[in-house]
Amino acid sequence: MKCLNCKTEMVTNDVVTKKAELSYNTCEKCGSLWLDKGDLDKLAFTVEGSIEASSTEVDKTPEKEIKKCPRCDDFNLSRVHFLDCTDIVLHRCGYCQGFWVDGGELNLMDEELTKDMPVSGKGFSDFVNNVHVPYWFKRVKKKSSETDTKITVLPVRGSTLKKATEDKCPACGSLLNLYSYWSAHYEGCVKCKGLWVERDELRKLKNQVELGRLHWMNDEIDDIEKTSARPTSRLCVKCKDVKMVAAVFGHSSLVIDWCPKCFGMWLDHEEFRSIVDYLNTIAFNVKPKEVSKELEKDVKQLIKGGPEGRLAEIGDIDADLHALINASIFEHPKVFEACVIAGKMAQSTGA
User: How many domains, in total, are found in the chain?
Assistant: First the structure.
């Protein structure tokens, strides 16, 4: 593994303490670190609680050079805010959930932690810098080239490979594989990481992510054929000789490839994630009146027998109700404050 800042070969540190085993990669030239998922919490063994939470909304401040994940094949790191609301910006991989920490940022994180939660000792920056030797039971240092592992990036994380297909990727020409993600199926390209979804599969796919919170959000998918579009040179994965069109997804700036004949969609690398982020933003800012209209529509579809099937329609209604509760709470600060107080009281009583 090469340092993303100074290109020096990094050193892998395998450490065994009284409480945990952890591994992290350090650059002995500039002090930067790579931490796999879960290792930041293990590193911060002097801190009570988890500190791996970071902002879900990516900081889009322009960078001189895009950082690639050292673990995942051709996956960019995103700028996220440490502990969600601080001014400390770290780089995190949206796929493997690992963290890149620049030299000196551990000290800033230590300072931030002492404001919000109990921290014993001098913090975990000193642990990395060889000060907290009494906490170590064993420590082994190796060149990262001896320990490096790579993660195969799937078009949608958590998918299961079903079989190879004869369909070709419209972006790079490689053969596509068929994958399943819960009840949804899609075809993906191993090389460029794009994915093909048939007419109703995008709806199923987004219903499964984010713990079902986006189940009720179907308008942008239903209205894709109504948006402005222009012809492209890419051929439809299924229709073969039909050229797809570039269509704007909802009211976003995201442009996807859509087949006007079979209504299938091609999403380039990370565009599915961008769709999910866009829908999350809408869901967070939705007004109670808007959700109420959606709830009324979904109830009518359930009674009449909607196009998605009974279980899917019930899932939409369940998500509608949760969205309505959340929207009502955040629109009325006193209700939100009461909920927070009730939550704290429940915690204090062990409920």
Answer: 3
Whether residue 87 is contained in a domain is answered as: yes
Q: What is the span of the domain harbouring residue 303? A: 288-349
* Token pair in block for residue 177: 């594989």
Can you tell me the distance from the alpha carbon of 6 to that of 2, in angstroms, rounded to the nearest whole number? Answer: 8
Residues 246 and 314 in one domain: no
Q: In what order do the strands lie in the sheet with 136-143?
A: 77-81, 89-93, 99-101, 33-35, 21-26, 11-17, 136-143
Helix (H, G, I), strand (E, B) or coil at 156: coil
Distance CA 177, CA 164 (A): 4
Q: Among 100, 117, 146, where does a domain finish?
A: 146
Residue type, 343: G
Per DSSP, the three-state class of 305 is: coil
Cα dihedral sign for 339, 341, 347, 350?
negative
Which residues of the chain fall below pLDDT 50?
131-133, 216, 327, 329-330, 332, 335-336, 338-340, 342, 344, 346-347, 349-351
Q: Where are the beta strands (DSSP E) in 215-293?
A: 229-235, 243-248, 255-258, 265-267
Q: How many CA atoms lie within 13 A of 210 on its CB side?
A: 23
Specify whether 262 is located in the same domain as 295. no
Q: Which residues of 15-45 are buried (b: 16+ CB within 10 A; e: fewer)?
A: bebeeeebbbbbbeeebbbbbbeebbbbbbb
Coil, strand or helix at 240: coil
CA-wise closest residue to 170 among 310, 71, 269: 269
pTM of the predicted model, to two decimals?
0.62
Distance CA 75, CA 79 (A): 13
Name the 3-class secondary structure at 180.
Answer: strand
